[in-house]
Automatic annotation (TrEMBL):
One of its GO terms (molecular function) is ATP binding. The lineage of its organism: Archaea, Thermoproteota, Thermoprotei, Sulfolobales, Sulfolobaceae. The keyword ATP-binding applies. This is Replication factor C large subunit. GO terms for biological process: DNA replication. Part of the RFC clamp loader complex which loads the PCNA sliding clamp onto DNA. It comes from the Archaea. The keyword Aminoacyl-tRNA synthetase does not apply. It comes from Sulfolobus tengchongensis. CDD domains: AAA, HLD_clamp_RFC.
Length: 405
C-alpha cells in the first residue's frame, strides 16, 4: 500500500500549505526562464525536513507542464554522475514532447565531500552549462562544503508548517480515508511532529491503519517524539518483533542508518532471528524485493523508495507466520554487526594500497577502466615496470602477494 504522504502530496502550488512567499518566488523564477531571461540559473530551496521542498518542486513542474528530471544528490558518488544529468538535459529531447524541463537535485547537503569526490564541482559545472532551470533542496544550506554553491544560486527558505496548516492537512486525509479522528489526537501528533508534515502523516497512517480511528490515548501510546532515532540494534528488534505493518515501517523510518545500511543489517540478522526455514525464505524474498525497488528508486523514480521501505520493514516482519497466533511472544536474540562492513574495514589498508598502484598506472585511462582491463595484466608483468613506477616496499609486497594468490 502506498504511503499517505505520497498519496496526498499536493500536485499544484495552489494546494501547498503555508509557503506563500516561496511559491511566489518560484513562480517568478520559472516564468523568467520561460521568457528566456532567467533571473537565476539555479534555486536552492532550504528548510527543515517535511516542510515540502520536494513537493514544491514537483508541483512547480506540474503547474508549468515541465518534465522533472530528478536526482538525489546525496546518492551520487562521482563527478560523472552529476555531469550525466547535464548531458541528458542539454542533448536529449523530452520523452513526452512537452515544452521544457526542470532539473531537481535533492538533498545536496547530504553529499559527503570525502566519499563523493567531485560532486560539488560537478554541480557547479552543471549550473554553469545548463540550458534548463535547476532546483536544489537542502535541510542545512549553511554547511561549509556548500559555500561555492550558495554563491552561484538564489536561496529560498521555507517555513515550518504551523499547527492550523497541519491540522487542515491531517483532517483532509482522515476524511478521504474515512477515519474517525479526535482533534486532541491530531493535535498530539502535530505537537510531536514539530512541523514535519511527512512525519505527521506517517504517524497518522500508522494509527489509522492499525486502529481505524485517532484518539488522544492511542496517539499518546503510539506516537514517538520526532527527534527520537533508533540505533541499528533497536531498529532490528522493533522490525523483527512487529506484529503490524505500521509498527515495522515506523521502526525503519526512525533508524539512524540509511536504507542501504539498514538492508545489510537486516540481511545479516534474519537467520539469527528466525528459526523456521520458510520464515527465513519469506524474509529474504521480501528483502530482495526491497533491494530491487531501491535500485530503481536510485535510477530516478524516487516514489519507489516507499515500496523499498515497505519490503525491508513490513515484508520482513510479517514473514514469521507464528505472529498470527494470539499467544505468540517475541524471542530475544543477540544481533551482530554486518560481516560485509567488518570485512571492508579489515581490508581497507589493502584496498588503499591497491588504489595507489592503480593511480600510478592509469595515466591515459579512467580509474574504472584501469581496474577492469589494465590491472589484471599489470599483475603479471609488473616486475618489468616497478622501477619506472617508483613503487614503495609496501606496494611491491602487495603486488607479490596478489600475484601468488
Amino acid at each position: 500500500m502506498i504511503q499517505w504522504f505520497l498519496k496526498y502530496r499536493p500536485r499544484s502550488l495552489k494546494d501547498v500549505e503555508n509557503q506563500e512567499d516561496a511559491k511566489k518566488e518560484l513562480q517568478e523564477w520559472i516564468e523568467s526562464w520561460l521568457k528566456g531571461k532567467p533571473n537565476a540559473k539555479a534555486i536552492l530551496l532550504y528548510g527543515p525536513p517535511g516542510v515540502g521542498k520536494t513537493t514544491l518542486a514537483e508541483a512547480l513542474a506540474n503547474d508549468y507542464n515541465l518534465e522533472l528530471l530528478e536526482m538525489n544528490a546525496s546518492d551520487s558518488r562521482k563527478l560523472q554522475d552529476i555531469k550525466s544529468i547535464a548531458e541528458k538535459a542539454a542533448v536529449y529531447g523530452s520523452l513526452f514532447g512537452i515544452k521544457g524541463k526542470l532539473i531537481l537535485l535533492d538533498e545536496v547537503d547530504g553529499i559527503n565531500t570525502r566519499e563523493d569526490l567531485g560532486a560539488i564541482q560537478g554541480i557547479l559545472e552543471l549550473i554553469e552549462k545548463t540550458k534548463y532551470p535547476i532546483l536544489m533542496t537542502a535541510n542545512d544550506p549553511w554547511d561549509p562544503s556548500l559555500r561555492e554553491i550558495r554563491n552561484k544560486v538564489k536561496m529560498i527558505g521555507l517555513n515550518r508548517l504551523g499547527k492550523y496548516a497541519l491540522r487542515r492537512i491531517l483532517k483532509k486525509i482522515c476524511q478521504s480515508e474515512k477515519i474517525e479522528c479526535e482533534d486532541e489526537g491530531l493535535d498530539y501528533i502535530i505537537e510531536t511532529s514539530e512541523g514535519d508534515a511527512r512525519y505527521a502523516i506517517n504517524m497518522l497512517q500508522g494509527i489509522g491503519e492499525g486502529y481505524g480511528k485517532v484518539t488522544l490515548d492511542i496517539a499518546k501510546a503510539m506516537v514517538r517524539r520526532k527527534e527520537r532515532e533508533l540505533d541499528p540494534f533497536e531498529t532490528l528488534r522493533d522490525i523483527f518483533w512487529a506484529r503490524y505493518a505500521w509498527q515495522a515501517k515506523n521502526a525503519a523510518t526512525s533508524a539512524q542508518v540509511d536504507y542501504d545500511m539498514l538492508i545489510r543489517w537486516i540481511s545479516e540478522n534474519i537467520p539469527i532471528q528466525y528459526e523456521n526455514i520458510e520464515d527465513i525464505w519469506r524474509a529474504f524474498d521480501a528483502l530482495s524485493r526491497a533491494s530491487i525497488f531501491l535500485k530503481r528508486a536510485k535510477a530516478g523514480d524516487w516514489d519507489l523508495l516507499s515500496y523499498a521501505y515497505d519490503m525491508m520493514s513490513s515484508g520482513v516482519a510479517l514473514a514469521e507466520i507464528e505472529k498470527k497466533k494470539p499467544n505468540w511472544k517475541p524471542k530475544w536474540k543477540k544481533y551482530q554487526f554486518p560481516s560485509y562492513i567488518q570485512l571492508l574495514s579489515k581490508s581497507k589498508d589493502l584496498r588503499d594500497t591497491r588504489d595507489e598502484i592503480i593511480k600510478k598506472i592509469s595515466i591515459h585511462s579512467s580509474f574504472e577502466k584501469t581496474v577492469n582491463y589494465t590491472y589484471p595484466y599489470f599483475l603479471i608483468f609488473f616486475k618489468k615496470y616497478e622501477k619506472r613506477l617508483s613503487l614503495s616496499p609496501k606496494e611491491k609486497e602487495y603486488l607479490n602477494s596478489a600475484l601468488k594468490s
